[in-house]
Amino acid sequence: MDKSIAFDRAGVEPGVVAAAVYASGKRLADIAIEDAGAWSRRAGHVVWIGLYEPSRDLLQRVQRQFDLHPLAIEDAEKAHQYPKLEQYGDGLFIVARTAQMEDGRIAFGETHLFVGKGYVASIRHGASKSYAQVRERCEAAPVGLSEGEDYIVYAILDFIVDNYFPVLATINAEVEAIEDDILTNPPQKGQIDRLYTLRRDLLRLGNAVAPLVDVCHRLEHAEVMPIDAKMRPHFRDVTDHILRVREGIATLREVLAFAFEASMMNGQIQQTYIERRLAAWAAILAVPTAIAGIYGMNFKNMPELEWRNGYFFVLGAIVTVCVTLYWRFRRNGWL
């Protein structure tokens, strides 16, 4: 069962998935939002708050606890932000885009991270898996969690990036199936429309993934103050995963382009084949049409009209020419 649902049933206020304080990599207690600031200022303690589509009032309460910048709170409330990393004093504001498959399309969401000395506040909007899994993994690895807020940020970003891979795998499987079908059967309009939709979704996914390289690069290379030097190499691992995702997206877009071109070529080949058949039958039918047109003219001085066997001769000529044309067209692959 999703942990966010479990916490709601346990009586936690709406919008709050979890709020807990940790020390030395161990969970000490669940806390109220109003107590978060005091706990975060204690030496060796870190507060981790998880929110899902919080109200404005809830965001303002979190803001007061950690003295968050108003501009960052405004961005977190709007939830239509470009992936980025911004520093406000001693705190960081990180925006990342999440993605997962829903009804055959890539559904996008956002995660906003407020990070500072002694606290991490994660805010989810839209399509996103619960970070209860991340919390469980962190709590199962107290050595890593003892690094505090830096390790939590790394774990969340790594989880976001790792969830891109199932999306790519799903799209790849579908593209391969469509590609195999296109290469053996005439393309259908629905398949072409689907290829176009997937290419557009991959473009949006690429736009969501690319800025995270810069975010992790800045975290890795000490361009922001709060990240401990010992944790910076962990973000290099996230960067490697992001680069793999980018390569996967690029490869899939090439495959989609090939499949799209193959469908167009197959359609053109099919159209050309039909046009050849029509042209061949038109040429065959032109023979009896022309002969019948000639002898259908109302002239008295046509010498063939008096032939005793003229009718049978003309029919024989029509059949002979038509059969010959049919044989030639068949031999050349037009019929």
Give the SSE map:
Blueprint: H1 3-9, E1 16-23, E2 26-30, H2 33-40, E3 45-52, H3 56-66, H4 70-78, E4 84-88, E5 91-102, E6 105-116, E7 119-126, H5 132-139, H6 142-145, H7 149-162, H8 164-184, H9 189-220, H10 232-295, H11 310-331
Parallel strand pairs: 3-7
Antiparallel strand pairs: 1-2, 1-3, 4-5, 5-6, 6-7
Helix pairs in contact: 2-3, 3-4, 7-10, 8-10, 9-10, 10-11
Strand order of the largest sheet: 2-1-3-7-6-5-4
What is the helix/strand order? HEEHEHHEEEEHHHHHHH
Any idea what the CATH superfamily of one domain is called?
Answer: CorA soluble domain-like
- How many whole angstroms does the radius of gyration measure? 35 Å
CATH class categorisation of one domain: Alpha Beta
Quick one: how many beta strands?
A: 7
C-alpha termini separation:
63 Å
What structural class results from the helix and strand content?
alpha+beta
Largest sheet: 7 strands, mixed
- Total helices: the number is 11
What can you see in these coordinates?
- 60% of the residues lie in helices and 17% in strands.
- The protein is an alpha+beta fold and 335 residues long.
- Among the domains are: 1-141, 2-Layer Sandwich (Beta Polymerase, domain 2); 270-331, Methane Monooxygenase Hydroxylase, Chain G, domain 1, CATH 1.20.58.
- The longest helix has 64 residues, at 232-295.
- The protein is rod-shaped and about 120 Å long.
- Mean pLDDT is 83; it is low at 1-11.
